Structure formats: structure tokens, C-alpha cells
Amino acid sequence: MSGGDVLQQIARDVGDPRAWAAVVEHTVAILIIAVAAWSAIAAVSPAIRRAGRRPGRPVTFAPLAESAVRYTIGFAALILMLQVVNVNLTAILASAGVVSLALGFGAQYVIRDVLAGLFLISEGVVQIGDVVRLDADTGTVERITLRMIQIRKFNGELLTVPNGAVTRIGNLSRGLGRAIVTVTLPYRADVGRALEILAAAGREWAAAHPDDARGAPSVDGAVEFKDAGVAVQLSILVPAGRQWGAESAMRRRVLELLAEQGIKIDTRVSVTI
Q: What is the Cα–Cα distance from 14 to 47, expressed in whole angstroms?
């Protein structure tokens, strides 16, 4: 067929009312499928979130179920749209050897992330609201899906990590935490008196917070020798997630008591060049 014949065929198709009717029919059908899929996702997602907030149900599974429903509805809608425009999926899958190979290499990462996410959640390693540490980053878990975990760092940064890339995770919201207060004193300071002050500050805090204190505070003594002085330490077990508030309160009280006794801490800043 010559170029002129092709142009004539295109002109006949453009002017054929039946061709335009088919285009309109296909467009309307695709729009109906898209709207139906969007409506289904919009209706199901809030229902899953409400079910996840019911007492006694782990809220972590709600985002997981929501993600699975989104993927399922979206994939089904795509299949229906291709069928509307008479795309032979069997022929495409049978003839797409190279494409299938490329997709296979890409899919292995998706499968890795999904499997890692399933084990991460099913084994109860993390839940939404937990404070976790991923390598050098610490934050609160905001969302877990089939493929990734999102944590909100203290500075507000939202960190997104594929589940398959999570090799080590520290959960700071399980069991007990340890509030630790470390103070560096000059070598000329009265370390014995400073340790007594740390013990007094720990006892005061424990007496004021009996629901948080898990046992008596421990004065760990001189824990490290530094260029600036000797580091002394106070610690106490508290419920997980309460250690930061306890550390702040005890640190403030230790500074007040040290100042009252005339014991100065070392405030020099050491710089390594």
C-alpha cells in the first residue's frame, strides 16, 4: 500500500461516523471504569482506616490492607481498560520476551520489598506510632505499606525507606527504656560530691514520678575519661518512650544542684583539626 493509499484510508476512517462512534464508546467505557475504580478506592480506604482504629485491633495492618486494595483495584481497572480497546493481553504476554525479562529484574525488588514488609509486620517488629532507629536515623513510624516504611524524624523530615532495604531496626517503644544523664566534670572537681548530687537528683525524680520509675536510680560512677574531664553518669529504667522526658528533667535538676554546691561542669569545646 502506497503512501497515498494510506492517507486515503485514514481520511475514510476519520469521516466514518461508525469510527467516531466507536471512539466515543471506548472513551466513555474507559472513563466509567476509571471513575468506578476511583470511587471504590475512595469508599474502601476510609472504611479500612476506621476498622484499623477500633480498640483491640493493631493499627499497623490498616495501611497494609489499604495498600493491597489500591493495588488490586488499580490492576483490575487496567485490565478492563485494555479489554475495552480490544488489546490482546495473551498475545502481548506471549510475545514480550525481552520486556518480560526486564520487568522480571525490576519485579524482584518489588517482591523483595513486599515479602520484607509482610515479615516486618506479621512478626510485630514495628507498629505505627513506634519510635524506631534505622541506621543513623531515628523517628516515629507514620506509615507502613506493602513496599515501604515511613518515619517522621524529630526535625520534621519524612524518611521513606523500602522494606527490602531495612536490614537492622531498633525499636525504642517496646518494653523498658533507660534514661541516662552524663555530666563531664573538670579533673579538679570533687567527683565524690558530684556523684552524691547525681544520686540525690535521681531519687528526687523517682519520688516525683513513681509511675515512671522502674526501680531505684543507679549512679554508674565515672564512666569515661575525656580530654575535657571525667564523665559521670546517672541512669534509671523507665517505660519505653519516657526516657527523653526523664533525662531532660534530671539533667536540669543535676545542673541546679551542682550550681548550688559550687561544682562547675566543663564547658570547653574541643575541636579536632
A: 47
Confidence of residue 269 (pLDDT cuts 50, 70, 90): very low
As a dihedral over the C-alpha atoms of residue 168, residue 172, residue 175, residue 177, rounded to 10 degrees, the angle is 130
Please report which residue ranges of the chain form alpha helices under DSSP H: 3-15, 17-52, 61-84, 89-95, 97-122, 191-208, 243-260
Map residue 190 onto helix, strand or coil. coil
Q: Which three cell numbers stand for residue 25?
A: 464508546
What are the residues whose beta carbons fall under 8 Å from the beta carbon of 202, sequence distance 6 or more?
Answer: 216, 217, 218, 219, 234, 236, 250
Go through 24-57 and write b for each residue having 16 or more CB atoms within 10 A of its CB, e for each that does not.
eeeeeebeebeeebeebbeebbeebeeebeeeee
Q: Are strands 148-153 and 137-144 parallel, antiparallel or unpaired?
A: antiparallel
Listed in sequence order, the residues at least 6 apart from 120 whose beta carbon sits closer than 8 Å to its beta carbon are 126, 144, 149, 163, 166, 169
Reported as type and span, the H/E element at residue 176 is strand 176-185
Residues near 116 by beta carbon (within 8 Å), at least 6 away in sequence? 163, 164, 166
Q: Could you report the per-residue pLDDT of 206-246, keeping only the tens digit for each?
A: 888 888 888 888 888 888 888 878 888 999 999 888 888 88
With 0.70 as the threshold, say if the pTM is over it: no
> Cell 566534670 identifies what position?
185
**Cell 461508525 sits at which residue?**
18
Question: Which pLDDT does position 20 carry in this prediction?
Answer: 63
CA neighbor of 166 nearest in space, from 188, 140, 135, 127: 135
